[in-house]
Design brief:
Elements: H1 3-17, H2 25-32, H3 36-47, H4 51-69, H5 74-80, H6 86-97, H7 101-106, H8 122-128, E1 142-148, E2 151-158, H9 164-168, H10 174-182, E3 195-202, E4 205-215, E5 227-231, E6 234-241, H11 246-263, E7 271-273, E8 279-285, E9 290-299
Antiparallel strand pairs: 1-6, 2-4, 2-5, 3-4, 3-8, 6-9, 7-9, 8-9
Length: 301
C-alpha cells in the first residue's frame, strides 16, 4: 500500500548520500529498478516538487551551512555542490535566499533552508509490516537530573494543540519553520541537540511549542512568525530512552518515556516540579541520542 513512500524515501537517502556528486538520475533509477520517468513522477506526487528541484534546494541549503560554518572559498563551495561557477552559485543563492553568498557569510541571519524530506514514517512502516511485526525493543526508561542555565527560547507556542502532529496541522509550515531554525543551529545553547519541541502551560491550559534554545545573551534576529522568551535556569528531571530504531519502535519508546514522565513523583528524589519555568522539553533524535522528556524541578524545601 505504501510501497512508493518507502521507495521515495530511498530516493531521498540516495540524494543525501550523493549530494556533492554528479551521479545521474539514471544511475539512481537503475539501482531502484524503475525508469527515471517513473521515479521522478512518484517523487513529485509524494513531495510536491520535482526531484531536480529537490536536489537543487538541498544543495544550496547545504552550501549555505558551509558558508556559515567554514572558511572555505565561495568558489570551492560552489564547485563542491555542482555549480559551474561562482557567478552561477551567486545567482542561485540569491534566488533562494534573497541575499548573496558573500553577504550571508559576513552576516549570517535566519533563512529558510530546505530540509530533508520524510515520506516514509513509523506509521507507514507499521502498516507495511503489520503481519510481521515482532515485539518492540524497549529498554528501561532512565531518570536523571540535568541543569540547564538561563536561556532564551526562540520558536512558536501554540496553546490550541498538545502534540507534534496537531502542531504542524494547525497552520505551521514544517518545512519553513524547521528550515529557518536549521539556519540558526550555530546559535543553539551548548549541550542541547538542536530543534526542540515540548509543552507549555498557560492559565491552566496545556499547549505545544517548537523552536530552539539559545544563550541568554543572544541578541540576533528573531524570525518572522516566531517569538523569543527568557527561560530561567533550572534543574530538570530527564526521562530518557537510549537510541532506538525509529521506524520500528518510535511509538512505543515515546509512549513509555512520556508515561514515566507523567507518573513520576519528584519527591522520590527530593524535588518538586518547578512551575515557574512553565514548560517541558522533548529531545527526539532516535538513532543518535534516543528520546527524552525534560521536566523542570527544584529542591523541595
Amino acid at each position: 500500500m505504501y510501497e512508493w513512500n518507502e521507495m521515495v524515501q530511498l530516493m531521498v537517502d540516495w540524494v543525501e548520500a550523493n549530494i556533492t556528486e554528479s551521479k545521474s538520475l539514471l544511475k539512481m533509477s537503475e539501482q531502484l529498478g524503475y525508469s527515471p520517468y517513473y521515479c521522478s513522477r512518484q517523487f513529485n506526487q509524494l513531495t510536491g516538487m520535482t526531484l531536480r528541484d529537490y536536489v537543487w534546494t538541498r544543495r544550496i541549503s547545504r552550501a549555505a551551512l558551509e558558508l556559515r560554518d567554514t572558511d572555505q572559498r565561495v568558489l570551492d563551495i560552489a564547485v563542491k555542490y555542482g555549480f559551474s561557477s561562482q557567478e552561477a552559485f551567486t545567482r542561485a543563492f540569491s534566488k533562494a535566499f534573497q541575499l548573496t553568498p558573500t553577504a550571508y557569510r559576513k552576516a549570517p541571519r535566519p533563512i529558510k533552508l530546505a530540509i530533508r524530506q520524510e515520506v516514509f514514517s513509523p506509521y507507514h512502516y507499521g502498516i507495511k509490516e503489520r503481519e510481521k511485526m515482532s515485539n518492540v525493543h524497549l529498554k528501561p526508561v532512565e531518570t536523571k537530573v540535568e541543569f540547564i542555565p538561563a536561556h532564551k527560547f526562540i520558536g512558536i507556542w501554540d496553546i490550541s494543540v498538545q502534540n507534534y502532529g496537531d502542531f504542524w496541522n494547525h497552520g505551521h509550515n514544517c518545512d519553513e519553520v524547521s528550515g529557518t531554525l536549521e539556519s540558526m543551529s550555530n546559535h543553539v545553547l551548548p549541550g542541547q541537540l538542536g530543534q526542540t519541541a515540548g509543552w507549555f502551560y498557560q492559565n491552566g491550559q496545556k499547549g505545544y511549542l517548537y523552536g530552539i534554545l539559545v544563550p541568554s545573551e543572544y541578541d540576533g534576529t528573531i524570525p518572522a512568525g516566531m517569538e523569543c522568551r527568557d527561560i530561567p535556569e533550572s534543574e530538570y528531571l530527564v526521562f530518557f530512552h537510549p537510541p532506538f530504531d525509529y521506524l520500528k519502535d518510535n511509538g512505543a519508546v515515546m509512549g513509555a518515556v512520556e508515561e514515566a514522565a507523567a507518573k513520576f513523583d519528584p519527591k522520590e528524589m527530593g524535588y518538586e516540579w518547578n512551575e515557574e519555568i512553565g514548560q517541558d522539553y522533548q529531545r527526539h533524535f532516535p538513532e543518535g541520542y534516543g528520546y527524552a522528556v525534560l521536566r523542570p524541578v527544584r529542591k523541595k524545601i
